[in-house]
Each structure stands twice: as structure tokens, then as C-alpha cells.
Here is the input.
Amino acid sequence: MNELLKELYQEIILDHGKEPRNFGECEIHNKSAHGHNPLCGDKVSLTLFVDDDDIIKDIKFSGEGCAISVASASLMTEKLKGKKLSFAEDMFKDFTDLVKGSEESLSIIDEDDSLYALKGVKDFPMRVKCATLAWHTFKNALKE
Amino acid sequence: MNELLKELYQEIILDHGKEPRNFGECEIHNKSAHGHNPLCGDKVSLTLFVDDDDIIKDIKFSGEGCAISVASASLMTEKLKGKKLSFAEDMFKDFTDLVKGSEESLSIIDEDDSLYALKGVKDFPMRVKCATLAWHTFKNALKE
Amino acid sequence: MNKDKTLHKDIRKDFPILSKKILKTKDLVYFDTAASAQKPQVVIDELNQFYESHYSNVSRGVHTLSVESTLRYEDARKKVQNFINAKSENEIIFTKSATESINLVAQTFYDKYMSAGDEIILSLMEHHSNLIPWYFLRDKYGVVIKFANITESGEIDVNHFESLITPKTKIAALTHLSNVYGSKIDEKVSSICKRNNVAILLDGCQSAAHLKIDVQKLECDFFVFSGHKTYGPSGIGVLYGKENLLNEMPPYQGGGGMIGEVTTNKVSFAELPAKYEAGTPAIAEAHGLGIAIDYMNNIGIENIINHEEELTKYAYEKISELDFVKIYGDGDNRNSIISFNIENIHSHEVSSFLDVEGIAVRAGHHCCQPLMKHLGVNSTSRLSFGMYNTIEEVDIFINALIKCKEFFIK
Amino acid sequence: MNKDKTLHKDIRKDFPILSKKILKTKDLVYFDTAASAQKPQVVIDELNQFYESHYSNVSRGVHTLSVESTLRYEDARKKVQNFINAKSENEIIFTKSATESINLVAQTFYDKYMSAGDEIILSLMEHHSNLIPWYFLRDKYGVVIKFANITESGEIDVNHFESLITPKTKIAALTHLSNVYGSKIDEKVSSICKRNNVAILLDGCQSAAHLKIDVQKLECDFFVFSGHKTYGPSGIGVLYGKENLLNEMPPYQGGGGMIGEVTTNKVSFAELPAKYEAGTPAIAEAHGLGIAIDYMNNIGIENIINHEEELTKYAYEKISELDFVKIYGDGDNRNSIISFNIENIHSHEVSSFLDVEGIAVRAGHHCCQPLMKHLGVNSTSRLSFGMYNTIEEVDIFINALIKCKEFFIK
Ligand SMILES: Cc1ncc(COP(=O)(O)O)c(C=O)c1O
Ligand SMILES: Cc1ncc(COP(=O)(O)O)c(C=O)c1O
Here is the structure.
């Protein structure tokens, strides 16, 4: 089996791709956004509940997409739930750097991080948009 | 002096270019047209009087242009005055063939013809439009 | 050139990119010709030659290089004219792409012949490039768009199409060859349009390099295609339009080269084809397209068609044997294009997997979102053939597809 | 690379066409760069390379070739961004030509910001490509066009320009560098526009390869230029627009690549820059333009400017010494372009005569008919320089001009 593919499709990715966590819609939410990738038609809808202290109390997503985009969304929700918005923003930067191959500039994500599993995307540049779709949608939800 | 230029600018061309014959407007005319070359802005206006027997009784031109376009117009008016329209149409075909370099297909114009002096145009393809401007204007005048 | 069945073996040598290795080890299997065709060496060489020895702007100067460029540019127009059997070279307009050609027709046809409430017929399988220019008319001017249904086999439902026509229908814009199904339009559609006085634009993006085109036999009013899908360079497209229509319609873009006389108050326009070619055109690209057409003619359009038919048939059969694959549309009336999905595997995964095997296929909505919706999917994978593909490549593809399924569905 | 005064000697070797013989015997003296620039070998080679090893369609597929093409295409955008110092690559739209860029702005700026009775300011020396797109607005929608006068020296009369502004003035579209006079626009014009809340489009066709461009310093809202005049391939143009304007204005052409979501009823549009790039773009051409920009940067824009200044000054002085020649405009503020007439000899004769001597100059109205009228002529001859021209070539030209006069006026 090809190494690049193994890197890209690690067990955790395939797992989250098939059985996404936090799938659905938050019962109470005060932020939301729809995202889509115009190149392939993939979609994601994100709902969030952010409390007065800027803590993400709840976050869920739904939509259709490839394993990479679904796994990325799933891992993102896991990662951000309970975190401060400011941390989430830093994470956004790190994550986009990671999948674009700028590993040297990471400040939070390290090899033990679940998000690190998406590192293999860097060798498939046209898939970066799949991996970042949920994250950009998250950014847009905050802008509301 | 370069041979191609000598061919192009024969005495008769320079002469007609500087002192065009039949310059002006026919006192009585029943056909007319304006022509211009959009590539350089050169213009020609043509007036004709054609009688009931389809004889070109009078033909004059005015306008501004390069030596080739003015000489061609001048020589055309000389050539067509007193001729039948059908002859003029044949001449049109012959003349455009001549300046485009299809000498083998000439049926009327021969080496003794004054129009033959414009043969050198064939080596300057971008000047064909200069040489044929008056003739196309003539064609348009007949369409009226 | 060799015209027998092994023809494609020799042809492959003409396309330098085909000897590329993907990821340094895998032979390239290029099954994405419908997105863009690869270029034969002769086209690449002629671009070279053009810039090295003959280049300058066209139509304006009187110097030697200007002559050499202009002759080549206008020669290309004649080659296109012959290629699609147009009556006059005035009917051939060079644009930047088929997309631009359609935008040009939509705007200027509307300007001349339509007003609010008039109707346009499209089909559910049109490419976005043959949708959005018409949507603009709807959203700006209030014309009405109707969509012809698509049958299960992937063709326009001709009866439904005919039923959409009313006295207000002015034009139908339809794909000549579907970029998703590979299906060719039913010839009846043109006659129906003719009979009802409806103009018809055929989007020939997918047909120009894969069928014999005769715009007179097709009875179409407009025909568009792109150079880059026809073995020519990027950056050049073609619009064919009937001379009387192009004469009557207003110009599209304004600028140098398309004018007659200009004052501060007024402008008159150049004759065809210059009228529709504002600004410095894609000079070398037009020449390159002309050379690509020469190349196709040398190989022989019939030979290309036969070869691609064989490939398509073989691939369709082989893929049909895989029970985990769904093909869209059926096997008849299919030309060089097969769209499919593997159950439970997204087209992106399929394409990335195949890529690593050296195989280039397209994944996505193929700029046909309404059709995807109609099919109930977000995206499909698509393989599409050019004259250079081989049966062996299809076998490689089939094996890879099986491996792909095994990789993702354990 | 060698940056001293003999720089042009080495540069010439980079341009293969310059070793061409005209009529088999005469060295080519190419003085028609304002119409289109010749291409350095590296640009030609890279086009080659692109088609031979990396080509496919961009932005859509996920396979290797699609990646390789897309990276190159987007890289070119960044190079253009840096070349003109735009704030964001979203402000760089690839078009087919400067002419298309202007058409795009005229239509979409009108759609968003103007209505009947609003005013546009142009100047009497605009190129048809910066006239007709605005005439279309006048003739279609009833906007008003005003023309700024041109001074004897060949520049916009700034006071007159300012006097034309009213509360209804929405945009001024002006040449950054005149293609007839070679004069650069007075910087005051931009500040006047800023002060009066008038948007400004600069037509940079003639400046992009001959001045240092900084769109932020220029304070322009739009800046357009063509690849082919900038040592790049034909078939590619650039539109720079301020991001907020491009975001607010509607799209221009519709088609693949510029959409967000499409149903049969609705369409949403892609983000910048894709929003304005409908259809398959000029892929290889964009890459080629990027390489041309690299090439210019390597030589050094300052070096190019200095060299062309020297040439222009020398040529202006030499031609001024010929009492039978009239030059249009004066000697200050003149960049690489000199338009002239020989008394009583039509520019066509001059150009044909020079052509036979191997010298390519432009003859005609230079797509500036209103300016020709203002000058009281039908046409002029024009010599224009590129980085590859030399003082020796100017001397050859001067000698030929004298012979030309003797030939026609005995
Ligand atoms: C000042 C100016 N504007 C606009 C244009 C049009 O450029 P293009 O024909 O490349 O679109 C030109 C060149 O012809 C020009 O010199
Ligand atoms: C059927 C069809 N129509 C239109 C287009 C648009 O062609 P282009 O992008 O070359 O303008 C394409 C290709 O993408 C196509 O396949």
C-alpha cells in the first residue's frame, strides 16, 4: 500500500469519516454557519453555543462530504468543545498551517494531538479545502 | 533601392497618389458610398452616375489616404468611366486577385493595364486593404 | 499516419506528457480529457516557433511580423471553419473559452431578440457555463427559463422538451455531448427547434474533439467549443454563429479592433468577424488551435471516433462487472465519458486513491450541480478518454478501482 | 545579470526573435513593443515545459496534474500581486486582455454604483479599448461621458479635468501612459479623484512593462494591463481592483468556477478572485506571464526604466534634428514611445519603407481616433521601445527615415 495514502487515511480518519462525532444540531445554539466547497459540492452546517465567558459549550455539525472533510469536522468539534474562543482561533491557524505543510510554525498542535492525524493532507494540496471546510465554516459562524 | 519597394511604388502610383484624377464629387450622381479602412482611419467617398443602360457615365472620389489607396482610387475611376457595370464587376474580381497575388486567375487585366501597376501590393499583404478600399466602396455604392 | 487499430500506440508518442511518472514511479494514465485534453508535441512546438520567429500583434501594423502573425491567426480561423463546416469564416469568432462564447451569445441574443417574459429552454444536465449566462438574463431582465427533463439513460426527454415550447420561446441552449453521461443529443431536438422557430445553441465542448462536427447538418444557430479540450492551447475558445444572426446582434465587448469609426460622440462597428473580437486576441493560441485541428485531421476524425468508441465500450463493460460501482446513464449513446460512484466511498477518496496509482480522473460535481441534485448525489467520479488512451490503461484502472474499494471498505 | 549600461547587449540574446532576418537579409529592428512585446526564451521554454509536464485543468480535479497546474496558476497571481504591489491576491483577476478587464469594470461598476445621468470622465487620448466599453454604458443606460482636454505637450489638462467633476461624476478612466505620446499621467489626477470621491481606473497597458507600478501609491481603484505587452504570452490580461469594490460589484461572466451553489432557481457566487473568472482560464498563459514578471524582476525594473529613458531621449533628439519630421507631444515626460509624421508622406508609406529595411514601426491611428482628430491627422507612425532595443538601432532607424523621405519626395 502506498505510504502517502496510509498517511492520509489513518485509522482515526476513516473512523471519524464513517462515524462522525457530534453529528447533528445543537439543541440550543447562538452561532451557526453553512459552508460548502464549490469545487465538489460538499457541504457542512455548524451550530455552536458560546456562553458569556466565550466558552464553546456545545458544537455540532451536519452535512455531506468526503472522508477527509467529515473526519476533519468531527475532530474539530471534539477538539473545540469546552474550549475558549481565543484558543479556537489559535487552533484554526495551527490547523491550516498543518494541512498546508507549514509544520514548523505550529504552536499548539503536536504529534500527540488527534488533529495531527490530518497531517497527510499536505501531500494532496487539492484536498486542503476538504480538510479546512469545517474550520472556515467555524470562522464564519463567529463572524455573525 | 529595394526591388519590392520599386515594384510597389512605381512612378504611376506615386504620380496618381500625389495628383489623383477624378478627385471630387460628380455634379449629378445616382449612386454613392463612403468607405474607410478601420485599421488606419483612411477614408474614401465615391459618387457615380450610372445611366439606364448601366453605363458608368461619371465617377469621382474624394478622401484621405496613403499613396496606395489614393492611387488605386484614382486609377479605378479612370478605368471604370464609360464602362458597363458588368465589366466593372469583372474588373473588381480581377483586381482583388491581382493584389492578393493570384495572377494566374486574371481574365481581363494584363501587363499593359494601368491597374497592373498595383501588382506590387501582393508582397505587402497588410496593404491589400489600402489597394482595395476604393473598389469595395464601389461595390457598396452599387448595392444601394 | 498509421490508421489501423494499433494507431493509439503511435499517437501516444506524440504527447510528451504521457511519459510522465506520477509520484516518480507510476505511469500517468490520463483519464481526464473531458476537463482538458493534453497537447501533441506539434502544437507545443508551433507555439514555440510562433513566438521565436513570427510573433507580433495582428491586424494593425503593416510590417513583416505583423503580416506573419495575422496570416497565421486568420489561417486558424479558416481551419476552424472547415473543421466544423461553417459556410463562411465570418461565422467563426475567437473567444477566450466556450464559457465566454456562451456569455456572448446570451447577452447579445437577448439584446437583439428578447424581452422580459420571453422564454429560454435549457436541460437539467447543462454545465454551469451553459446555465449561469442565461440565469443572468433571468435575474437582470426577467426572461423565463424552463428545464427539459433527463431520462434515466442520460438523454434529453424529447417529448418533454417539445412540450416546453411556447410562442414565447426564443432559444434553446443545450449540450451537444453531456460531460457527465457522455450522451449525444438527439437530432430531433434541432428539427423541433427549427419547426418552432426557436434558435438553438449547441454546447460542443465535449463533442468537438470526439465527434465529426458539421454545423450545417446539425442545423444549429450557434455552436461553441474550447481549444483546450480539443488538443489546443488554453486561453482560446470558439463561437460559431450564423452570419445573419451575428450581423444583426449587437457587439459584446468594446475596444480596439472591433470598431469602424470612433468620435467622442459615436462609434460604428467593424464587419464580422472583427466586430466580436475586441482587443488583442489570443494570437498564438488561435494558431495553436489551428495546428491541433491539423493534427486531428491527420490522424483522421473517423479513426479517433472509432478508437474512442472501442475504449468506451470496453470500459463500460468492465466497470459494469464491478457490483460495487454505479454508472450513471446506460451503455448506448455513450461517447468517451463514464461517470460513476463506488458505494459508500466519496468521489474524492476514489480520485485521490487513483491518483497515487498514476490515474487521473475527475471527482466532483463536474460543474453540473442541478444534474447532481437530479441524480441524488453530491459528486461523482468521471473517467474520460482522449485519442491517446488505451485498453491497457482501462485494465490498470479497473484493477485500481478494485484495490480502492478494498482499501476503504474492509 | 549584468546591470551596467551594456545590459541590453546581453538581454538581446534572451529574445530569440531578435536574430530574425527580415526579407532574408535585414536585421530585425523591432520598434513596435507598444503594440506587443517580444518574448524572452525563458517564457517560451516555460510554456513548453508546462504543456509537456504539468498541464491539466485547474482548481477542479484532485489529481497530481491538476495540483501542478493549479499551483502554477495561483503562483502567477501572487507574482502579479507583488509586481503591482496589490494588498491581496484577491485583488488580481485574470482576464483575456486589458480590453476585457475594462469591459468587466465598466459593466459591473455601472451595475453596482451608477444609473442614468451619472457621469464618467475620459480623456481625448484614450485607446478605443478605454472608450467603447464606456460608450456602451452611455448608449445602453444613458450615462454621460465627458472628455478631458489634452495639452499641446500631450498630457491631460489637469485644470480642465478637475472642472469636469460634478456630484454626478462616479468614475474616471484614464490612460496611465499614453500609447501615442508616451506621456505619464499627472499624479494630481488621482488625488483630485480621491478628494471628490470619484473612482479611478488606470489603463496600464503601456506602463506595466515600462514604469514601476505600485497601485497603492497610485491611489487607483482599478488598474488593467495585458500580458502580451509585458513580455508574457498572448491571451492573458490582468484586472486589479480594490477588494471592497470587487466584493460589492456583481460578477461579469457566468460559468464554471465562479459559482458557489447552483440550483435551477438560484445561483450564489464564489469568493474573490474566482467570482470574476468564469470558465477555464488562460492557464498556461497566466503561468507564462508570471515567468515574464520574474524575468523583468531579474533584469531589474529600474534598469529597464533607465535604459528605455536613455533610448527615448536619444531618439527624440535625433528625430527632432530632422526638419521634415513632426513629433507629437514634447520631450519631457516621454516614456519609450514617439509618434511622428513625415510631411506629405502617409504613415503607411513610412512603415512599408522601413519594413523593407527590417524596421518594424506601427502606422495608423493606434486605436486613438478621437486623438487623431484632435491632432488633425488620420494616422501617425510610432516607434516604441522595449528593454531589448539599442542606440545602434535608433541610428539605423534615423538613416532609414532620411532615405524614406528621399524616396518619396524627390
Ligand atoms: C493604452 C492602451 N490601452 C488599451 C490597450 C488594449 O490592450 P489589449 O489589446 O491588449 O486588450 C492598448 C493596446 O493596444 C493600449 O495601448
Ligand atoms: C459541456 C461543457 N460545457 C461548457 C464547458 C466550459 O468550457 P470552458 O471552461 O472551456 O469554457 C465545459 C468544460 O468545462 C463542458 O464540459
